[in-house]
Queue: 2 jobs
Job 1
Amino acid sequence: AGSVAAGSPQELGGVVREEVRPRIITPNGDLRNDAVVFKFDTAITGIPIEASILDIHGARVAGIEAGTTGTDPDSYLIWDGRDDSGRTMPSGVYIYSIKIGKSAATGTVVVAR
């Protein structure tokens, strides 16, 4: 599956992906657009998930962390603009790759400074 615009649901391994936002992040610690959130309308716990951020050449730079909103039944994945070593990534276009069960989705996000 290709990238999907925010607000355009996509079936992904038995869950519906509701939104990916913001598409442009500025991971500078000001708590505004510091991370991209991949939100699902159902819990994704217990479903095999492989989620990564790749550079524009396809090299993996980071995993995407799972999270839940506590009282909110939705589940989500978050990328904070950092690589697996904790370094903030330079400005540029990055590719997300999410595999849930046997389904997959990809798209792009931008890190801006």
Job 2
Amino acid sequence: MRKNRIIFFVIIGVALAIVAVSLLTNRGTNQVTGLVGSEKEAFFEDARVQKALLRHGLDVTVQKAGSREIATSFDLSQYDFVFPSGAPAAEKIQLQTGQSKSVTPFFTPMAIASWKPIADLLVQQGIAQDQGAYYTVDMNALLPLIKAQVRWKDIPANTAFTANKSVLITTTDVRKSNSAAMYLALMSYVADGNNIVQSMDEARPLLPLLTDMFLRQGLRPSSSLEPFEDYLVKGMGHSPVVMIYEAQFIAQAARGDGSIQPEMVLMYPTPTIFTKHVLIPLTVGGEKLAEALTTDPELQRLAIEYGFRNDNLAYFQEFTKSHGVTLPNSFVDVIEPPSYEVLEGMIQVIEQAYQQQ
């Protein structure tokens, strides 16, 4: 009997200890919920990121959505923070919510995922330049091929990629996704004689060309993950030239699973454009998250391991080099996107054209 009583009290003691540890662990923890662009979902779901955030008293849950959708299609009062991709969407959200605070914990250049035979073909045509481990693409030289609806098989002296496909850069759905919106911003700049489009009056003469660049792609996915997955899985014939975030290529290479094949290459548009990942806090919990992501060295290193760039250039170079990826350390010809109103106006015109098909 006495032995049973001892066992009983031991069990009670263990149970109380578990409860106490649980209470201590959760004391002061903020449950924080946010909307994020799909390219940041894996970062927030990483157990190392979650553990680092818990040290700041943050239990973070995220829901992914297209950046334009975040800005236009959600009741943001239900969230502690929003974390879209791209400054234009962030600008709209700040106007909508009246929230002036924001941070940009990391950014990523837009890039083009392609294949060495195609990149070398573009070099041969004077459109691209081989920079050793990556390529640059003169978008002013590429635009005439897109405008004239040239097909790959019709490029002179082309024996590398004789597909009947039009020379187009594949994107996501411009009506929903930031990566496509950044492509629109970039190409509007090039089509406007290397000038940022300042108004819809300035945009209108360009819109037939810009609309055609998207409509000729057919229906596109809303998430930046899907075109990149197609590129990885379906090969050059299906996905010859794809607009992506540089971070996607880096993160995939870091996995070391062989999915980045030797003939896969990164090309950087010239001029280029950055996607700024702007976090807008909507509550105290969101503000604490903003502070953690911008000040915690571990979180900054983990962001780099998902391919994002931030102020820690030394670790970015170390990490990418260790995974066999050589990238530009800096960019010279970088443009800004148009204002939200102008970019949104152009997207709405393209959206109407989709509806009329």
